[in-house]
Amino acid sequence: MPILVEIVTPERRLLSQEVDMVTLPGITGQMGILRGHAPLLTTLDIGEIVLHTKAGQQYVAVHGGVVEVRPNKVTILADLAESAENIDEARAQAARDRAQKMLAENPPVTARPQLEMTIRKSNLRLRVAQRKRRGGPQYESNN
Predict the structure, then answer these.
(1) Of these four, 6, 42, 51, 138, which has the most CB atoms within 10 Å of its CB?
(2) Which superfamily does CATH assign the domain made up of 1-143 to?
């Protein structure tokens, strides 16, 4: 039986779709949610949301937020979420390259966490965008 997944950002509703299973990057690790899951409220880490359907898997990059799980619905309130087709690979690569260059130049200790986070987010964007190129199924967003 499918479970409804909604992904919402401060700007828009990215997705509302029934799936067989959703895999999320919880703050304490990866978690898989099926219909009938016990109620849960937790925070999200930076990572991939994987929507599992009979047609295959769909991927969304998520950059933090919260998730509410109910037995028949998963609501993801993301700080930022990007589907593969909305990711600008050239921009993500350029951001990663800039941050890596700045890290190599021995920046102040206070600047390092932000540069490392930029690299982490850029790597995630590139990984999700590359899944699109490999021909994996995608979805149409509901705006």
Answers:
(1) 51
(2) F0F1 ATP synthase delta/epsilon subunit, N-terminal (2.60.15.10)
